[in-house]
């Protein structure tokens, strides 16, 4: 990912503050601006009088220092990373915890009213995240083709499709091992799955880079980030594992770090360490999901952050650089990610509304037909897809994968639709395929009671 150009913020040391110069700005400026934004020097310097900019910046940094919390993670110069929690960020965090602490049913309404519907919803949304995460890394396959490939378990035809399948398996694995402690072996497993059978940047799946020729350029072609030396990777990642596994619940007077913030820090640090030749972003996002599920924020099974990161690659890149170019202040990255998560919740609600509306358009037709009481959710949803896409092919394997049911069950459901003349049947070699007739909607209306 090419990152935007960012000027390094003026260095701030509280011991060097001249209150006789900076003091007059302390009442006027806080850690955030009047809109709650945690501005970097690059964003602030043109919003204030140029002659006073550095003194105003010193006043803002003074206020931020009063809120700063250090984490036991170091950059390549052995300087600590830290973050603040200004009021605006606390409000976002509260909203995320309030929503994520609930069930998907609270958001989904009637669309996830039984276990099969919920399984279908989870599978569908994991596919969405797998596809957009790959597209964020440069994959060019269309969503429709990619989703059908995942549903049918078709072999990928190129590296872009391979990346999508790998991402899907990666997210499923992150959920599977969510109760395990973080270890270097687990990070290597995540990476191995993410990059299996890919060749970009001469990546070796499940192995650390063995040189220092990896760097990230800015939009002027200059080095924006050069990760720590490859020889330090095992030691540095062990520190990251220790941080992930350390108790930060605040119980008995210990340090408290909200799980959402801790997950975001893990995401940032894997990107900062850049331990692999390729696949760092995908591994970092899997680490984020792993930690959220580990802490029983199950709603994150349904949330796609990659779609929104893909829509704002500049903001994503800046949030990394602002942290690095302002004394390791993680607040910029955390605040950006909190906005992404909140937007992802909105996207989820919109997605569920669209799916619900689509489903009930068919249900409305079915309610007035003789088929109403003969079909279950899966069969009604297949009919919905068929009315939307006449001629669409369905297979037993695709149906079983889409709805997380056994293949025999899927075959029974499809054959029932054939017997009711709502699907037609054909053969492709030894494989039985089912397809939606072009007049499916008319067949439904013709059977009104």
From TrEMBL:
Position of the signal peptide: none
Residue ranges of coiled coil: none
Pfam families: Fic
Domain Fido: 182-339
PANTHER family assigned: FIDO DOMAIN-CONTAINING PROTEIN (PTHR13504:SF38), FIDO DOMAIN-CONTAINING PROTEIN DDB_G0283145 (PTHR13504)
Protein name: Fic family protein
